[in-house]
Design goal:
This protein is an alpha/beta fold and about 550 residues long. The chain has 3 domains: about 170 residues, Periplasmic binding protein-like II (D-Maltodextrin-Binding Protein, domain 2, 3-Layer(aba) Sandwich); about 120 residues, D-Maltodextrin-Binding Protein, domain 2, CATH 3.40.190.10; about 210 residues, Rossmann fold, CATH 3.40.50.410. About 35% of the residues lie in helices and about 20% in strands. Helix 16 runs parallel beside helix 17 and helix 17 runs parallel beside helix 18. The longest helix has 15 residues.
Length: about 550
């Protein structure tokens, strides 16, 4: 979303007024800030002997502001051979600063200490020139916080809950800020996506949890942690957990570390373009890296720049500082943001099921169940992953099910909740899925059906939803009078619209499925293909396809 800024800094709502002994924090502006701010100078800070002070404007993540203010007070005074120094410190939300700096780079603060380097990466990606190196002054791993009762049920403190457990316990179990504007949330979600990447059921459960997540876009850290009292897991930093648990009377929460969740790294970015400000910034950085400031950093619950926490931090405080930091590439964070955004977008999907005669064959390892049995069971499970506003339809296909067509519409695309005729879509789909039967001696008109399904979904394409086709078949196209694979691929290419993608996720059931053709269809549409060899595979890949189809195309 584009945001216009006329006077960027004063218009932002995130400035917090703070008053400390030698530090006065007032209205920090990106343009014309010399008249106010956090005043830090020699002596009593009155500035009586200073007629032309050099102002160092510092924007810092709120949770670290007190340490920066104290460090600024410690280096206040006359610069040898130069002007006296006045420092203004603003506790500023990193996402808001990133937007302001992107909109007006010339008015950027002299020093910016966001909670994570991802904000610097985002501003660079917008074309703003930033320094290549920004040393860290503190770190804190991104974690999922859960209530102590829920943690004990999983064996804490001996065995803390795993990320997979947190997303597999049912819907509405996550309390999240908007990941595009909160680094800890983005990192925690990246860790969850990584933890469930190789587990189809886990990825499906995560998709369900994200769709039912408690959204708290404007919540403070404490409001977010308060959600753990309802059984939710909240994405925060380890430092937030420690700060919460150290307060008398606070309900204790426990930090769960995703294995690759990343850490907030609080980079010290010097944005000033003049030598005097750069020297002043260097003095402030030296102070923040000094023993006194680092002790203050640790006292607030942060780890140091190396990711090492205070060794005397007991696990009764809900964290395990022995867990090493887990670096996460910027590209993985951006991918997590994209996938999460699309997963939580609305759904518009057409499920297409093969009802040819071979679907009556038994599936190895399925206890006598047929291919159709396991398909309908998996489809019923997958449908349960979606909320009532999801729009889903069902087709079946074989050969010439209706005059001139190999497919038949069983349930039109519509909401799982109440439809226009008053009936519940979820019940319609449930009854329809349960009633699907294979046709004796039925053949497989695969290619014509794929093209018809893509065209149907492209009709009424909804930009607010992920529009997709999920197709399951156990055979090969045997329609001699049909379009054929080359014709299908050519038509898909000719009719494709990058602005209105319709990915086709194909699932091949058993050795008889034409996996090469299915893979070609999925590649052509930006989808993916799966192969299920036995009963266990059917459930796993079908749920994974449904759970992950939201991040198609491109993942």
């Amino acid at each position: 979303m584009h945001v216009d800024y006329v006077d960027p800094w004063p218009a932002l709502p995130w400035l917090r007024r703070r008053r400390r002994s030698a530090v006065l924090v007032g209205a920090l502006t990106l343009a014309g800030v010399l008249g106010g701010g956090a005043v830090v100078m020699a002596g009593d800070g009155s500035g009586a002997a200073c007629t032309a002070p050099r102002v160092l404007r510092v924007a810092v993540a709120p949770e670290l502001a007190s340490v920066v203010e104290d460090a600024a007070a410690g280096v206040a005074g006359e610069e040898p051979g130069g002007p006296c120094l006045r420092t203004e410190v603003a506790a500023a939300d990193p996402a808001d600063v990133a937007r302001a700096v992107t909109a007006a780079p010339a008015d950027a603060p002299d020093v910016w200490i966001p909670d994570a380097s991802l904000w610097l990466d985002r501003v660079r990606a917008a074309g703003v020139d930033l320094p290549p190196e920004s040393p860290s002054v503190a770190t804190s791993p991104a974690v999922l916080a859960v209530g102590s009762e829920r943690a004990r049920a999983s064996g804490w403190p001996e065995h803390p809950p795993s990320p997979e457990e947190l997303v597999g316990e049912g819907p509405a179990r996550l309390a999240l800020r908007e990941p595009a504007t909160d680094a800890a949330t983005a990192m925690a979600l990246a860790g969850l996506l990584s933890a469930t990447a190789e587990e189809p059921a886990g990825r499906a459960a995560l998709a369900q949890a994200l769709r039912h997540a408690v959204q708290v876009p404007l919540a403070t850290r404490e409001e977010l942690l308060a959600a753990t009292g309802t059984g939710a897991a909240s994405a925060v930093s380890e430092q937030a957990v420690l700060a919460h648990n150290r307060r008398a009377g606070a309900d204790r929460v426990v930090a769960v570390h995703p294995p690759t969740g990343g850490s907030l790294d609080y980079p010290f970015a010097v944005l000033a373009d003049d030598a005097a400000a750069a020297r002043a910034a260097g003095r402030l950085l030296d102070a923040l890296q000094g023993h006194g400031a680092q002790e203050a950093v640790a006292a607030l619950g942060f780890r140091d720049a190396r990711g090492i926490g205070r060794p005397d931090t007991g696990r009764e405080l809900g964290v395990d500082v022995a867990v090493p930091p887990a670096p996460i590439p910027a590209a993985q964070l951006l991918e997590a943001l994209r996938v999460t955004t699309v997963i939580t977008s609305g759904t518009r999907m057409l499920a297409v099921v093969d009802v040819s005669g071979s679907m009556a064959e038994q599936v190895p390892g399925a206890g006598g169940a047929t291919r159709m049995d396991v398909t309908t069971e998996a489809a019923a499970r997958a449908t349960a992953l979606y909320p009532d506003d999801a729009r889903i339809g069902l087709w079946v296909f074989s050969r010439e099910l209706t005059p001139g067509h190999d497919h038949q519409e069983v349930v039109p695309i519509g909401p799982l909740g109440p439809r226009d005729d008053g009936r519940l879509g979820r019940e319609l789909l449930g009854r329809a899925i349960a009633g699907v039967r294979p046709l004796p001696d039925g053949d497989t008109g695969l290619y014509d059906t794929v093209l018809a399904a893509v065209r149907r979904v492209r009709q009424d394409w909804d930009p607010a939803r992920v529009n997709s086709v999920v197709l399951l078949t156990d055979g090969r196209d045997d329609d001699e009078g049909g379009i054929g694979l080359p014709g299908l691929l050519a038509a898909l290419d000719q009719e494709s619209d990058p602005a209105a993608p319709v990915p086709v996720i194909t699932i091949g059931l058993g050795a008889g499925s034409d996996t090469e053709a299915l893979a070609a269809i999925s590649r052509a549409t930006g989808g993916s293909t799966y192969v299920a060899e036995d009963g266990a595979d059917v459930y796993a890949v079908f749920e994974d396809a449904i759970g992950r189809r939201s991040c198609r195309p491109g993942c």
